[in-house]
């Protein structure tokens, strides 16, 4: 697990490090500059210093101070460096002024106008994490000029113009090849569209660590480890009952595929038994595709709820009255952990009574909407949701007293009182019909093995993404189908963060 911080959290941890732990701000600034220098050396260390020319764009805040410190370090390496300062030096931070005084002893030119020279490396140290306004005027012109120049672009901490909290572009933003960020990765560097502007992200240790939390941990995290380390332990003497019974209400006439994919994924995730409630015409298809599955119809639903450890409703069920009655029954007449997906979410969005029942039921509820379904559940436009997905997902989780896993290029998982998990893995090949049905089965399978709802949703999304990466590694992103994702779940490569099958041979 790795933390993702917002600007307020980062400012607090920076302040705690300086004021409570006692590491001076100038020391942190020096370490930040050294961290950027280290990354430059990794990429250009084999070149003759005389062949390298660097432009550093600085503002007059502490981010600009990092840039001034870097200019000095580059000068010491005999690398030709120019500094382009945008902003009034009279308004500069104290650390910036101190770095400026130090730099006077080095032959580094500092100008206030856009240079015409050619550069090997362009370093952006204009703004830091605290940008909260639209970029305009001379700053916008500087960023646009910076982006037009040829050269390898490096952003210091956060690409200037990017909102560090949401990844939103504030008018315009630097497009970096590399971002060297400090202490902890910032949310905006992994959320869209910010991740497209950040390029490669390196998180450098400059002395701001978890010791700087003082009881206030970041509210967001992501997984970046072998998923097998996150799975529930399996008892060596267990049996099919030990590993949980999943009841899956899925499929409709001519829509058997969703039930097949979800059932297979639940088994691949380790569930001991899976029973599928689906219309009779689907029985032959299911028996052929997933012979391990038990089968039932809506007439069996109430008895099946007594048998199950967890229920999942929605994949491929359609929006018929029968489907709505089944959803109402599972919500109102059972306290089982419940996952609602696909058409189950559309039915829920249209019925205030069902939403009220969700908030009042004793058992936990997980909702797994894609952005369109999230829009219907929240009443917000897709454009608004994408401006700040985390905010709206958290708001829905609190309103319905549920865990919400909002599926997108960056899936966001929020609980009512839990931290927020963001999935940063996966690929475009997973944007294919049935992929969400596989995820339903994965999360249901983890719930059946007694994982807590927020953890099951977060780990399930991560495992699903790694399986998608594994499928793409084998087939290519264009060729991935949902069934390929299900086949790769937890099968060697699908359990490892590297996701290549060769790692397990």
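Sequence proposed for the structure above (505 residues):
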């Amino acid at each position: 697990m790795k933390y993702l911080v917002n600007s307020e959290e980062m400012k607090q941890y920076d302040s705690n490090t300086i004021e409570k732990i006692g590491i001076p701000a100038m020391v942190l600034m020096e370490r930040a500059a050294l961290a950027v220098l280290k990354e430059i050396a990794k990429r250009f260390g084999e070149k003759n210093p005389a062949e390298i020319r660097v432009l550093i764009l600085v503002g007059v805040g502490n981010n600009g101070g990092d840039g001034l410190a870097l200019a000095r370090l580059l000068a010491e390496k005999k690398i030709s460096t120019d500094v382009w300062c945008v902003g009034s030096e009279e308004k500069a931070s104290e650390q910036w002024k101190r770095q400026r005084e130090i730099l006077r002893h080095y032959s580094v030119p500092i100008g206030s106008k856009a240079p015409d020279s050619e550069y090997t490396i362009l370093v952006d140290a204009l703004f830091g994490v605290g940008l909260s306004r639209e970029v305009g005027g001379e700053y916008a012109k500087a960023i646009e000029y910076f982006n037009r120049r040829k050269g390898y672009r490096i952003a210091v901490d956060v690409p200037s113009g990017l909102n560090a909290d949401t990844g939103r572009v504030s008018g315009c933003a630097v497009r970096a090849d590399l971002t060297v960020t400090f202490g902890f990765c910032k949310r905006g560097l992994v959320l869209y569209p910010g991740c497209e502007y950040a390029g490669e992200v390196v998180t450098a240790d400059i002395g701001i660590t978890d010791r700087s939390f003082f009881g206030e941990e970041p509210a967001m995290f992501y997984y970046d480890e072998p998923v097998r380390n996150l799975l529930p332990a399996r008892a060596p003497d267990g049996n099919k009952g030990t590993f949980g019974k999943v009841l899956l209400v899925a499929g409709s006439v001519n829509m058997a595929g969703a039930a097949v994919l979800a059932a297979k994924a639940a088994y691949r995730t380790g569930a001991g038994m899976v029973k599928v409630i689906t219309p009779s015409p689907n029985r032959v298809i299911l028996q052929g595709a997933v012979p391990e599955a038990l089968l039932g119809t809506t007439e069996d639903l109430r008895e099946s709820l007594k048998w199950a450890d967890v229920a999942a409703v929605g994949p491929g069920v359609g929006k018929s009255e029968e489907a709505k009655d089944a959803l109402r029954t599972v919500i109102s007449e059972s306290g089982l952990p419940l996952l609602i997906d696909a058409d189950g979410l559309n039915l829920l969005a249209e019925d205030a009574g069902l939403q009220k029942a969700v908030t009042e039921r004793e058992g936990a509820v997980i909702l797994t909407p894609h952005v369109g379904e999230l829009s219907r559940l929240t009443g917000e436009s897709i454009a608004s949701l994408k401006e700040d997905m985390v905010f709206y997902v958290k708001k829905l989780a609190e309103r319905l007293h549920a865990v919400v896993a909002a599926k997108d290029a960056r899936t966001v998982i929020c609980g009512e009182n839990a931290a927020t998990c963001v999935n940063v893995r996966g690929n475009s090949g997973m944007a294919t019909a049935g992929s969400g049905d596989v995820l339903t089965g994965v999360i249901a399978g983890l719930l059946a093995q007694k994982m807590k709802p927020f953890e099951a949703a977060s780990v399930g999304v991560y495992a699903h993404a790694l399986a998608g990466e594994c499928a793409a590694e084998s087939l290519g992103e264009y060729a991935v189908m949902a069934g390929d994702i299900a086949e790769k779940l937890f099968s060697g490569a699908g359990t490892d963060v590297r996701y290549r099958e060769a790692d397990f041979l």
